[in-house]
Amino acid sequence: MAHQRHINVEDEVLVQKWRLGDTGALDRLVGKYQGRIYNLTLKICANPDDAAELTQDTFVKIIENIKGFEGRSSFYTWAFRIAVNLTLNYRKRKAAVGFSSLNAPVAAADEQGRRALADVLRDDKTPTPADVAENRELCEIVQNALAKLDDEHRTIIVLRDIEGMDYAQIADVLAVELGTVKSRLSRARAALRQILEAFLR
User: Fold this and answer.
1) Distance (Å, rounded) from C-alpha 129 to C-alpha 77?
2) pTM of the predicted model, to two decimals?
């Protein structure tokens, strides 16, 4: 894919130092991205223990495959691609044995929560962390509604609206074209809005 590459000079330097045997460089990369990768996997799989294990597995994979990292994408998107693939594969395995941790009912909204939700849904986008942080009830509703989306839609919303990636970065992470990112995100937001709007009826 011919996406514009997002260069993070600090990451590139750390990767090169790590390849030359500087374990401190690896520690800095882990420290920089561990929390963000944990949050990503948690939003997709909705289980803190599984998210912690998936985060650990992600860094194991990164360590195992760093020699094959050719720098065609940034370290950031490469690492997130590994995390997303591991998490989605985990979800498929869980689905194959008939188990899902994402079937909890969506919390009911109080009147204040309904008003806040109505305000959010007036915008042509999904609620952002800043939107929901102001209202705890709304936060719970959005998180549970997000959990009701299918894995593909939930993942792209997490990458765009929670992690804050741009379209090119998402395309790199998901290994799809920019047009696919835009159409998939549009469908995902529409599905999420449909779930959220049910609380206003």
Assistant:
1) 21
2) 0.76
